Amino acid sequence: MFRRLLLPRNSFGFRQPSTLLHRCAFSSRIYRPDGSAVPVKEELTPLAKHIRDMILATGPISVAKYMQLALTSPIGGYYTKGQGIGRAGDFVTSPEISQMFGEIMAVWFVLHWEMFGRPRDTVFVELGPGRGTLMDDMLRAAQRFPQFYAALKGVHLVERSPELRREQFKKLNCQHEQTEMSNEQTPKRAVTSRGNLPVEWHDVLDEVCTKEAVPLVMAHEFFDALPIYKFERGVDDLWHEILVDVHDSRGQAVEGSTAKLSNSPQSSMALSDAQHFKLVRTRNVSANAALLLRDKHKSFSKGDQIEVSPESAQVMTQLAKWISAQNGMGLVVDYGQDWTQGDTFRGIKSHKFANPLSSPGSMDLTAD
Ligand code: SAH
Questions:
Q1: Residues enclosing ligand 1, CB less than 6 A?
Q2: Most exposed among 181, 196, 346, 362, judged by the fewest C-beta atoms under 10 Å?
Q3: Domains along the sequence of the chain with CATH
Q4: How confident is the model over 64-84, as pLDDT tens digits?
């Protein structure tokens, strides 16, 4: 791949001395005068350094931990920065393509509200509202059904990213005068000019699960952003965990050999010297494998991979209990196959698949 001809910094943040090294414009290596190659590392951003230091201190981390840090860490997590959604960003979602998506979702809620006997005192709840486009389209469409809208008492948005909260605030045309801000200058409570509905932001679903109203819950491309653990069935017929290690590790607690890396366009996981991180496989059954897989999945063959998202299961269970206790309704939309797949962990950057271990915080990470 063609790279800039400027000499980048090495993994410790120092520039390579240009008198001693020259590099080929088409490779990710610099060459010493004696012909030996020095890999050129990607920039060690504060987040990459944080993850690297964590691994060097305590050993390889789970893919789930890596994903959580790369997406939502306060120091440069991808969603924390909140710039990637939309045509000009890294990926486009259905509501960003057409307003009809949100309008159809609203009609689904109106229809079921009718079927459920028109309950009074409902609230819209959205998990991971992105730029706020979907909720804005849903509210606009819902206003066309005055009786449904009259029953709607507020909007609850579950969103961790301060930057995206600000975007949602703007998109929903919230009024500044009635806004309560958090210490970080992100909105906590506001009123949208769409029918003067109160809007509240939350970090986690637990904060919303009240008994006061009938929840109408929407989650679009939310669950695919939640962290996953990865496991591989070994030749010993046991589940080994795939972990993230530093790429240049020497003499530290690496438990296993480098995991098989797929070069499929789906995972785009080709290992490159430029990256600070690589996947490794535990030699023994890890505690996570023992806890999450137990004796299940005996039908798998040696070499098969599996991805597990306990956080998705936990949020979904909580959602299901709340919705059934309150006679509410929920619409969860995600994209993938309806059978167990092995390796779906991938990065998405500039509308293309990218290696998820490259430059944490610079790309969206998802798993089906
Ligand atoms: N639903 C939107 C955005 C999808 S991107 C759309 O369809 O356009 C995923 C969204 O989930 C982002 O808003 C991101 O900030 C949010 N998110 C990711 N992990 C989260 C978590 N653990 N808790 C709350 N929100 C999260």
A1: 71-72, 79, 85, 93, 95-96, 128-130, 134, 158-161, 164, 220-222, 225
A2: 196
A3: 94-220 (3.40.50.150)
A4: 999 999 999 999 999 998 888
